[in-house]
Amino acid sequence: MRGWVCDCCGRWQISVERIHGRYLYRLVRLYRVEVGGGRDVLGEVATVTDLEALLRARTPLTLADLREVG
Ligand SMILES: [Zn+2]
Question: Total domain count for the chain?
């Protein structure tokens, strides 16, 4: 997977998805196994500007809190 995860808890993840021929950033919240596991897709956006806005709206993070993976 290409994308980013947060360093603080690993519960927030952004992946780069190719959907209908274009690349989108997908913001996902991961739940710990202790609470049943699973994941929620919080949004998919096309630009870094929109990604920053989505992070502000749905998470306590900024892009600076994320570490690139993949
Ligand atoms: Zn975290």
Answer: 1
